[in-house]
Design a protein that fits this description.
Length: 113
């Protein structure tokens, strides 16, 4: 769960990990929760945002239209079905629980006919 760049460019997200989960903070100033979508697609977390300029003050609409999209690869121990998200003051906070050791090695027996 690390950004691809290792240079001095600051990404709009930060990741912290503890024993139970990965926590991601995404700075999205000016976006409301209605403007943002979060989904899991092919083992990646996809965060998109788009502000509709028609909802803005006409005097600023041409300068306030904005789109945001980022894709982060989920670690192997991410419990993607239990991700939670909260949006406050232009900051999206995501919690990605970790799979417990017994959940990581889920075995499904296939019947031979």
């Amino acid at each position: 769960m690390r950004p691809a760049s290792t240079g001095s460019i600051r990404t709009p997200w930060d990741v912290i990990e503890d024993d139970e989960a990965y926590h991601i903070r995404v700075d999205m100033p000016g976006f409301s929760k209605e403007d943002v979508k979060v989904r899991v697609e092919n083992a990646s977390l996809v965060v998109t945002g788009e502000r509709d300029p028609s909802k803005e003050d006409e005097r600023w609409a041409s300068k306030s239209y904005s789109k945001f999209k980022t894709r982060l690869s989920l670690p192997d121990d991410a419990h993607s079905e239990k991700i939670t998200a909260e949006m406050r003051n232009g900051v999206l906070c995501l919690a990605i629980p970790k799979l417990k050791p017994e959940e990581k090695h889920h075995v499904i027996n296939v019947e031979i006919v």
